[in-house]
Amino acid sequence: EMIAGIRSLSTPLNNAINSERSRLSAAAIELVSSLSAGLGPAFEPLVSLFFPALLGLCARTNTVFTRRAKACIFVVIENTQSPCLLPYLTGSVNNKSASLRLIAAKGVLACLNLFKSLDDTRAHLIKDVIELTARDTRADVRKAGENILEAYKAILPDNVERFV
């Protein structure tokens, strides 16, 4: 019942998240963080509603918006601990915004540190991320890619030889 209520408010919340008014955006982002903390893994059905807007904020040049969205993204990752977050993060790794690429790579790393195993589809997504980050122009994104490779080795050591 609560999920349905939140779902009905998703459009106004996303409008507030994407607002140019920083106080309004901050309040909406804080609400999403609180909802994910309160719902925990039950927040998973709402990921598709809010995660793209949060990732979009990370592509902005305003560091205030980027910092808030990044904090919310990592709160959602920590609280939901769901593999459904990986496609959103891996899709952002090849964005033109360097800050979004870095946040997405670090988000993938945070997900890998929470998971005990990966299915083949998600392992393929991680391989793509490792390849993209290895060729990135920014050193901090390449470093995040190295850390992703190390986490990948820990989860799927048999696949690493074939991958490397």
UniProtKB/TrEMBL annotation:
<dbReference type="GO" id="GO:0005874">
    <property type="term" value="C:microtubule"/>
</dbReference>
<dbReference type="GO" id="GO:0051301">
    <property type="term" value="P:cell division"/>
</dbReference>
<keyword id="KW-0493">Microtubule</keyword>
<dbReference type="GO" id="GO:0005819">
    <property type="term" value="C:spindle"/>
</dbReference>
<keyword id="KW-0131">Cell cycle</keyword>
<protein>
    <recommendedName>
        <fullName>CLASP N-terminal domain-containing protein</fullName>
    </recommendedName>
</protein>
<keyword id="KW-0132">Cell division</keyword>
<dbReference type="InterPro" id="IPR024395">
    <property type="entry name" value="CLASP_N_dom"/>
</dbReference>
<comment type="similarity">
    <text>Belongs to the CLASP family.</text>
</comment>
<feature type="domain" description="CLASP N-terminal">
    <location>
        <begin position="2"/>
        <end position="158"/>
    </location>
</feature>
<dbReference type="InterPro" id="IPR016024">
    <property type="entry name" value="ARM-type_fold"/>
</dbReference>
<dbReference type="Pfam" id="PF12348">
    <property type="entry name" value="CLASP_N"/>
</dbReference>
<dbReference type="InterPro" id="IPR011989">
    <property type="entry name" value="ARM-like"/>
</dbReference>
<keyword id="KW-0498">Mitosis</keyword>
